[in-house]
Amino acid sequence: MGQQRSAWILMGALLGATPLAYAQAPADLQPLRWNADALGNHRYLLDVKAAAKAVHVVIPWRRRDAHPEQVAVLVTGPDGKPVANVLRGGISQAQGELVFEAAQAGTYAVYYQPYVSKGRSNYPTVTYAAPTDTADVNWAHKVGIDPRAWRKLPEATVLRYEAVDDFDAYTSMERTATPDEVKALLAAHANERLLVFPETREHPVRMFDALPESWATRGAGGALSDSALRGEYLSFQVGAWAPHGKVDDVRVSFADLRSDAGASIPASALTCFNLGGVDYAGKPFTTRVDVAEGKIQPLWMGLNVPVSIAPGVYHGEVTVSADGVPARKIPLAITVEAGQAVAHGDDDPYKLTRLRWLNSTLAQDDELVKPFTAITVKGATLGLLGREVKLDANGLPAQITSRFDERMTGFAPRPTNMLAAPMRLVVEDASGVHVLTGSKAPTVQTNGPAKVHWQVAGIAGPLQGDVQASLEADGTLVYSIALTAKDAVTLRDIRLEMPLSHDMAQYQLGLGRTGDHAPADFQWKWNVQNNQDGAWIGTVNAGLEFHLRDEHYLRPLNTNFYHQQPLRMPVSWDNAGQGGIRLHSDRDAYAVQAFSGPRQVQAGETLHYDLVMRVTPFKTIKPAEHFAERFFHKYGDLDAIKADGANVVNIHHATPINPWINYPFLEPGAMRAYIDTAHQRGVRVKIYDTVRELSDRAPELPMLESLGHEVISSGKGGGFSWLQEHLDGDYIAAWHVPENRDAAVINAGQSRWHNYYIEGLDWLARNMGIDGLYLDDVAYDRTTMKRVRKVLQAHREHPLIDLHSASQYNPRDGYINSVLLYMELFPYIDRLWFGEEFDYEKTSPSYWLTEISGIPYGLMGEMLQHDGNPWRGMLFGMTNRLGWSPGSDPRGLWKLWDAFGIEQADMVGWWVHDTPIKTDRADVLVTSYVRKGKKTLVALASWAPEKTSVKLAIDWKALGISAGKATLVAAPIEGFQPAATFKPGDAIPVEPGKGWLLVLE
Questions:
Q1: 151-179 per-position pLDDT tens digit
Q2: Which backbone phi and psi does 170 adopt, to 5 degrees?
């Protein structure tokens, strides 16, 4: 996906003798100073005054890797060639002793972390080379092995440390204290169980199990002095070290900051991010922080400097306390300068002012998102866009209806009923079947135009029921159902019964099945190996998605990482493997039963039978808009893109204006210039940005490490060398771009990083002018997706959001359908791109309809794998995307669309019962693009196993065309079809897996 490195490398300044001390080194790409793959990322330069058979050196490298004695050391001479005759003396974290042959005077280099990279380039396996003996035996014998004798040899002078580029350099916070320095520090603080070290934001703590040299030499405690502009958000740290045993429940408090002139900043302007904040759903939370013996826990603080405050020096204090240890007070002296910060300082990510974004509640509300309409409440009947939910006395749906028409472009005069009978929650014991009932119809309360909620107290035989539920304007129903036993009871089953109407229950996906016709009889059981907790059942214009959960639900990781954080089995529904789901078609209904099986319930015990349902479709499709938006899926020259007919460009990461995966903030000048140029040409620009993984280039990464696994997933470490050399080893290595050495780590599902992400999108929309997002698989839920839409809609009349997914239906992803994984996001996106590993050749039309097209949910899309099947794709309005690959070229189809006027046509899919054009074979299908009274574009595609021919059955009245004068003309399209002309009654030849685009007029 990336461009050639030489085409867009940005030159950086050469590294000086002092290790860098930025939050991270600036992210500009630099030419590497040497071949890192052969020599590693770090070296010391030595000066040898004169040639000698052997010279001695002790390098004070202060390494952070735990076992440097197990890693090779490579020495090169002034000519750059390896020196074979090298002996290793004492190798420790503090220093390394070497003797080597110096055939000539000059500068020698000692590379001390050479590595070996194997595996896939995007998921490398990096190991560090073990020491090997390359010295000549005779030379080694003459030098000897006695270190005391080595000290009589000529000494090489240590010049300086260098890294292969600035970003890979160890910072001053990664130079470890020596054992003697640590011993001296502890002697000065004998018997103290908690030592604290204030530190500015310029020097983020990078090591959690080793003390940095600067702290050991400076000593513990002391004051923190810093400066900020008025209105700036100032972040800083306090490192808490537990040298003599675990320290429990670390707490932080603040005092007001006061100036000599009497002005003050209240303590409420300060926060400690490690001890809590506001979660991704807008709810306040607190976190307990314990410090293990020998570990360092950075405590990141933030000060919101008032914009109206008078300049001056403000004095206050931070108090750090914990169980059983004396409180530690850290004086603060903050100089507030006369200048005023722009946007709190957020335009410079390296200032870490954006940490306040972690606790943002931006767009966290119940306001409407286009195109959804306010929920109407008429007693127990709730109306929303194209659908209606009528509640029973138990709070569950008694009926759900859809008014979407089969074309999915509008609404039908008569609704489709989805339920054959009301839903029921049933408790069965020895005395019989007890249905959860409430005493009266629920009273619905309005949260806002986009959300309502209700509560029901009910009884189901021996259990008391508490039903708390909500409906949102997109069609999402969320139920928290608590069943409590007054007395101990033996139950045969607790189950949910959803009797669906036969007209609605045409297709089914989920529960280990890919999208196809709903089975007449099917059973499924819980299995942690599979990311499956529900299904979608429906037809094109009416459907129901459901998921079974409990109070401990946590969104699993996805896209290659499911098994690192799999589905938590819901205790209620799973019931130790006894629960499951039955699908059965009988005379009266298509019965869906989610059962949990027999169990003992103790007196006072509460079981949580939570349920999430979504009523589909979410919205109508808009073929005219879809066909008018022509995608170029690659960074490129804008004049060439426009000349090719595209008007929307998707910008991946690993491109000049967006180099780093999911951190699109470090090339703002280039990004703004590109987007401005695009807008001048009538081209919209969308960027790649999501939260599944995070680039190592994010300046906030050290701070995020300090949060434990709130943001960064726990894992086995490894991956690209930068991750192993600068993180603590407890992470999951993610995508790596070798062209620009961008390495990422996996994020831990739902976290405050979503708040940061929302603020970041707002910043991009305001400052960069982005027109939308390209989402490459997604690790967040609908709560964040709604906020994404709201933020972009606040700045763009019609923002564009498209979602790409590789097929998740495989063992590493837990055999979940991509549609089911992401359906909760569909109301807030514009189109799909499904995607790698989707099979366009050996799957049925039903699979295409339900798993790929997006049409039953209110979306349209494009194809990707092997450039798709263009003939079948046109049945659903789908092409491939220009620019993605050499074979991905829809320009011929675009030309035909424009010549025909497809944006003025009504799309009538093959699935519509009264579609105006059909064939005489069930395995050759037609979608019609009708310009009534003028002409119709006939998209014809075959699923027949062999070459065949078909005749068309045409409803001439519906088309407004005279049969006697009509012809079917195939315009020549390279790689798609030759020129041809047919009469309406002709047999049209069709190759297997192919078809035609014929203009009937």
A1: 999 999 999 999 999 999 999 999 999 99
A2: -70, 135
